[in-house]
Write a structure and sequence with these properties.
This protein is an all-alpha fold. It has six helices and no strands. The protein is globular and about 50 Å long.
Length: 120
């Protein structure tokens, strides 16, 4: 992810936490809310969690942290084990499940077939 400052409109569109997300975050310890919030929004925007190579703009960090009432303008991705725990919490919140070929291959095939039929 390239480092650049987001415009105010982009912040509002891409990085604003929904009421449900704020409710989820309010149930967590105050000190981890900014981790969860930034990682959640990054995941929603990029389809993956941030890594150490990703640079998240300072105005994004400030905007997200302000929403969860934290002042962490120098936020950094947590250490690996902690980041993995946060990812699991986010996946659980989003109700994401690992793809199991054994259980879902038929569903995937049906979905792909219907997509190809709809495009014809």
């Amino acid at each position: 992810m390239d480092h650049y400052d987001y415009s105010f409109d982009q912040l509002g569109t891409d990085w604003t936490l929904s009421f449900d997300e704020l409710t989820f975050l309010a149930s967590k310890q105050e000190r981890i809310r900014s981790d969860l919030a930034i990682m959640l929004k990054f995941y929603q925007l990029n389809g993956r969690f941030p890594t150490r190579e990703d640079v998240i703009a300072t105005n994004v960090i400030a905007y997200v942290c302000e929403q969860v009432e934290r002042e962490e303008f120098d936020w950094q991705l947590p250490q690996k084990r902690t980041a993995l725990r946060r990812q699991e919490e986010i996946k659980e919140y989003l109700k994401l499940k690992a793809f199991s070929k054994k259980h879902h291959a038929g569903d995937l095939e049906k979905h792909l077939e219907s997509c190809s039929q709809n495009s014809n």
